[in-house]
Design goal:
Strand order of the largest sheet of chain B: 1-2-3-7-6
Oligomer: heterodimer
Distance between the termini of chain A: 37 Å
Helix content of chain A: 25-40%
CATH topology of the largest domain in chain A: Rossmann fold
Order of helices and strands of chain A: HEHEHEHHEHEHEEEHEEHEHEHH
Structural class of chain A: alpha/beta
Number of domains of chain B: 1
Radius of gyration of chain A: 19 Å
CATH class of the largest domain in chain A: Alpha Beta
CATH architecture of the largest domain in chain A: 3-Layer(aba) Sandwich
Structural class of chain B: alpha/beta
CATH superfamily of chain B: Thiamin diphosphate (ThDP)-binding fold, Pyr/PP domains
Shape of chain A: globular
Order of helices and strands of chain B: HHEHHEHEEEHHEHEH
Largest sheet of chain B: 5 strands, parallel
CATH class of chain B: Alpha Beta
Number of strands of chain A: 12
Strand order of the largest sheet of chain A: 2-1-3-4-6-5-10
Largest interface: A-B, 27 and 27 residues
CATH architecture of chain B: 3-Layer(aba) Sandwich
Number of domains of chain A: 2
Strand content of chain B: 5-15%
Strand content of chain A: 15-25%
Shape of chain B: globular
CATH topology of chain B: Rossmann fold
Chain lengths: 301, 307
Amino acid sequence: MRDEFARAMVALVGKRSDLVFITADVGYMAVEGIAEACGERFINVGIAEQNMVSVAAGLAREGHRVWVYGMAPFLAFRPYEQIRTDVCLHRLPVKLVGNGGGYGYGIMGPTHHALEDVGAMRVLPNLRLYLPLTGEDLPRVVEMMADDPLPNYLRLNAAASIPDGTPPFAPWRKIKPGRSCVVMGMGPVLANLYDVDRALLDELEIWNVGVLPLEDLPPDLLASIRQKQRVVIVEEHYRACGLAEALSYVLLAQGVCPASFTSLHAKGYPSGRYGSQRWHQEESGLLGPELHAHLERIVRG
Amino acid sequence: MPAALAFRACGDVKISRLGDEDQPPVTDTPAARLQLLERVYSVKKRFLAMYKQAHAGHIGSSLSCAEILVFLQHAWMRDEDSLVLSKGHAAAALYALLADVNAIDARTLDSYYGEGTHLPALPPVNTIDAIPFATGSLGHGLPLSAGMALGAMLDRRDRRLFCLTSDGELDEGSTWEAALFIAHRKLTNLVWLIDRNRIQGIGATEEVLALEPLDAKLQAFGFHVVTADGHDFASLLAARDACALSLQDRQRPVVIIADTVKGHGIRHMQDTVASHYLPMDDAQYAQALDELSSAHAAALARCRDAG
């Protein structure tokens, strides 16, 4: 997604002269076009994320529209207090862009993974998260963030390819209909569902969450949950503070309590071994035979 | 760098808020010094009353930087400039200063520390125009000021940022990240002042985590380092002019190491860790006011004699 993001940023820079783009010395082969478009408004602060976020808050206080780019694990956690205090408490519209959410940095290992970033961000006051699914989402996501008066966190990852395409990016969108089970998920990991066999896939009604905090569930989604009574949540994130926990509250608060509610999520490093993003997804049951078996049990159970 | 980005030499900056605004601008005159003394006396009386009423601590922190704040407000900053009090635990001094120049309603000082107040122990979020950021989590003020200074530069605005940090918060890595950044970006529209009272949380800075040689460290980072007696207006004035001179070539940012005394001017608090924490009882408050009044009278007399 980062290439699509970079292209969307270049387009945005052309429209907004008050934009400042900051990177913590990352984005090789990705942000060069943004640097050229921004000129002196492209700031490489060096490998100093705490300073980067506070500087961004200072710039925003002066009226600039600031985008901050970093690797998700280092952008979300190292400057967490600066994000909370300098950006979120002051409700400054700083746009945080974290590349490589989840196991995105694969074989780089656990220091480079971000399995807690969404949870960490979604508890912060005033912050809105954007969670694109496909590369085509990025132009609209960037436009929405540019218009959003709140601070934002954008979680980038390897873009998903959805066989039949998707509706335009939205807080909620239905990706496909299905017979017996409602699946809700965030981010490109949702595309792994298309790897299961066709008969099983036909059972799955798939919805994508693009924005957190959750906006009201669409009425047809609620109706579908009530009717099917089987719900599965898919996220490349630890269960704690993730999408499943967010959704469980929203559903209960609306008096919706499906008979079956299953969270499929990142499990960390159960074997103590490392691999690619897909290898880790498979070990967590977010891809491959275990995912298939899980869904089979839920659908046929 | 375009001339518009220059830090305007401030040797000729008028002291615009001293007394009648219709008076011609003055720089360093006996009358101006007398007025600075009056203002700091007023500010100290205000915040001592606030601390007493609230039965609150951090008194030593405010006494450490009162002259610096008054000097910035009345002898350096212009309307278009801003101050970030990174050592937010001295908020009472800042509130008193702002009330003294009617930037906040003096009556609200009575609510300091109280339930439902807009004036908590440390600077609040987004409620007072003259306080751009809620501070107090140490190590934030300098990078925030750097961002504001960069923002003003990008806009070609003639605006200066002043950031007052404690010395204890130099333990924070984010302060040094910002120092690297400020020097690298040549943010010469930013003035960093360090309240060097040599006392931090529960001990002396040099015993907890030694900072010295602080001037050499800051020089090595790329700053022009100016030292001053942070309780003496003549010394602060000389530091101001030294900064202005240094900033003329717009190459090196400046930092003022202001030597100060925690709890300055009040005997039972002076140079003690306890003055960071302990409130005053009735006798201590009365004694503090007596000492403050005597010191003020003596300072006025010295100033008149010198003039």
